[in-house]
Amino acid sequence: xxxxxxxxxxxxxxxxxxxxxxxxxxxxxxxxxxxxxxxxxxxxxxxxxxxxxxxxxxxxxxxxxxxxxxxxxxxxxxxxxxxxxxxxxxxxxxxxxxxxxxxxxxxxxxxxxxxxxxxxxxxxxxxxxxxxxxxxxxxxxxxxxxxxxxxxxxxxxxxxxxxxxxxxxxxxxxxxxxxxxxxxxxxxxxxxxxxxxxxxxxxxxxxxxxxxxxxxxxxxxxxxxxxxxxxxxxxxxxxxxxxxxxxxxxxxxxxxxxxxxxxxxxxxxxxxxxxxxxxxxxxxxxxxxxxxxxxxxxxxxxxxxxxxxxxxxxxxxxxxxxxxxxxxxxxxxxxxxxxxxxxxxxxxxxxxxxxxxxxxxxxxxxxxxxxxxxxxx
Length: 377
Known about the structure:
By secondary structure, this protein is mainly alpha-helical. It has one domain. It is built from 14 helices and 2 strands. Strands 1-2 form a two-stranded antiparallel ribbon. Residues 1-5 have low confidence and may be disordered.
């Protein structure tokens, strides 16, 4: 266990997270003009989640990353069990079992924590494999990839059944990026991309050729999910059209605080960027994008400087997840990408997602501290 008094704080990361907290709380407060009466205090809840998240980050910093890495499989088992229990005992919300509802506290979404658990588990697996096989054969890599597929498939299937397709895509993206940074042969990626491409093409062929056959094979629920994903291709859909109108109405300097002129669903989560862009305009949006970029670049710097290989893999998984969610959330808000329900990290409202990001922040601050100690040893 680390001595917290010998800890070197990465002030840039801390500063950026605090700025994100202020932007998040202020934007959620501004979105209350679009929310129902029983949701008018979400900004207070977000401030509370940030406070709890800060405590979690400090706990992670005190525990240290080595202890977390050593217990990766225990965390994985706990995460999988939570997903199983969710399907059995979870309370359906909007026809989905994605949350445990805790009276007086709110809802907890296990899949959000599973993302960071998967990153830690894969990082430990990759490091163990590289230590065992410094010059792996094709057979060694194949068997390792089969093991990885099983580890990723279990939470992916459980999460898909909730259903939460967006998080499943994040699981897969995390896996691909971490495997790529591990130095595994490129041929496996070519093969994997080909298989995935054929599978997607086959599903879309049936979808466009015969919708009734598609429903018989995959079910109505999956049909509706694919249909929603494809809404963006012609920029159709009530949420997208109104969200884009709100962004356009912001102009250069914004419409002003609490003055979003048009309603669109989920302004506090999926479409929070539309609220921010409307309130603070193009200049405010550009500043937010600049801060997000600085945060991501800082993580790249930490990965390059870290001497701990597991930490390098963990950062690659975190960075890949964050960049995907940043691009996907902002892209879907302006009509570039399909609407998938992906939130904007550190900005969108959410208890479980925010807590998972703050846990990641604790891990990143540990890595930064280790890098600093190495430079000064």
